[in-house]
Amino acid sequence: MNEEEIGIGVIGLGMGANRCEMVCHTQGARLVAVADINAERAERIANKHNVEWYTDYHCLLERDDVDVVYIMTPSGLHEEMSVEAAKAGKHVIVTKPIEVTLEKADRMIDECTKKGVKLAVDFEQRYVADNVKIWRAIREGKLGKLILGEVRMKWYRSQEYYEGWHGTWELDGGGSLINQTIHWIDLLQWFMGPVETVFGHTGVFAHKIETEDLGAAILTFRNGAVGTILGTTTYHTDSPPRIEIHGDRGSISTSNNRIELWEFTDGYQPEEIPEGSPQNVVEDMVSALKEDRNPRVSGREGRKSLEIVLAIYRSARTKKVVKLPL
User: Fold this and answer.
1) Where are the beta strands (DSSP E) in the chain?
2) What's the pLDDT tens digit per position in 223-254?
3) What is the per-residue pLDDT for 2?
4) Are 90 and 83 in contact (CB under 8 A)?
5) For residue 102, with 0-12 CB atoms within 10 Å meaning exposed, 13-18 middle and 19 or more buried, which class applies?
6) Are 205 and 246 in contact (CB under 8 A)?
């Protein structure tokens, strides 16, 4: 890529409104158009940023000045829009999860590969400095033999939150695990490595929804370590999500992506993250295009957390341990 600004179009302006701000504040990126089925919302956000707007996202894909399409729509629509974007020669960013089935995720990945465009999944926690420090420590073997990795996410969502596509199998792909907890499930597998088996339980306790508002699982990893996952939207406030990991040479715990405990038998202290490292997926995509590299969370990388969640759902249905890959 040349040194000119990367033109980005955002589709879906719920949380996508926030991503428009992110694009506008990213050096090397330029917001050029937005799309949403709600005309009033599309026009309002477009006017705020002085860009064009559409209710049909295909019109956005026809623009020559759109290099990257940022898809912020319900999860079950990602495959259709990503495939259309790739066919139009656009690079793609999708919000998490990558999709709601592995088949749809694989079609996205395959089409983007076929068309020679990049696919990134927006797992924002991957860019938090403390999480990168943890990943580096584990990669360098500072924790020694990994023993246990735990994630816990206890948030609140009202019934009104679920009066739409949330909590549906078709468009959300599940409930509290695939929509909220997946951020920390992604971090868990990034830190701990490939998952070998999953035993899960899910249920509906406080909402009228198709899917789950509480899920828990016990995992084993290929390296022999054990993992646990707890995710719910039944708590009466938003408690800071937590991750705790330890090996035979150290322990780490975080609260809301901030390190609270950092204990190593050899006194190891983390290195500072190099200046200029991407702070979010937009910065990552811009530099990935200019450097011709993969984004930090490529399509194949973003697929991993989806597979874990789907394994939990399968285990919960069958009451059996599920082996990965699915």
Assistant:
1) 6-11, 29-35, 52-54, 68-71, 91-95, 119-122, 146-154, 195-203, 214-221, 226-232, 242-247, 250-255, 258-264, 322-323
2) 999 999 999 999 999 999 999 999 999 999 99
3) 46
4) no
5) middle
6) no
Based on the fold, state whether residues 94 and 243 are members of the same structural domain.
Answer: no
CATH number at residue 178: 3.30.360.10
pTM over 0.90: yes
Beta bridge partners of 253: 244, 261
- CB of 231 closer than 8 Å to CB of 243: no
Q: Is residue 1 part of a domain?
A: no
Domain carrying residue 32 = 6-125+278-298
Q: Which two tokens stand for residue 310?
A: 């789907």
Inter-residue contact 148 to 224 (CB < 8 Å) = no
Say if residue 205 is in the same domain as residue 287: no
Cα maximum dimension of the chain: 59
314 in the same domain as 282: no
Whether the ω angle into residue 74 lies within 30 degrees of 0, i.e. cis, is no
The pair phi, psi for residue 131, each rounded to 5°, is -70, -35
Contact in structure between 216 and 316 (CB atoms under 8 Å): no
Q: What digits encode the pLDDT tens for the residues 203-213? A: 999 999 999 99
Spatial CA neighbour of 199 closest among 242, 224, 228: 228
Sorted by sequence, the CB contacts under 8 Å of residue 91 that are 6+ apart come out as 67, 68, 69, 85, 117, 118, 119, 120, 285, 289
Angle (CA) 195-197-200 rounded to 5° is 110
Cis-peptide into 194, omega within 30 deg: no
List, in sequence order, every residue forming a beta bridge with 233; answer none if it has no partner: none
In 204-281, beta strands by DSSP E: 214-221, 226-232, 242-247, 250-255, 258-264
Tell me which amino acid residue 197 is. T
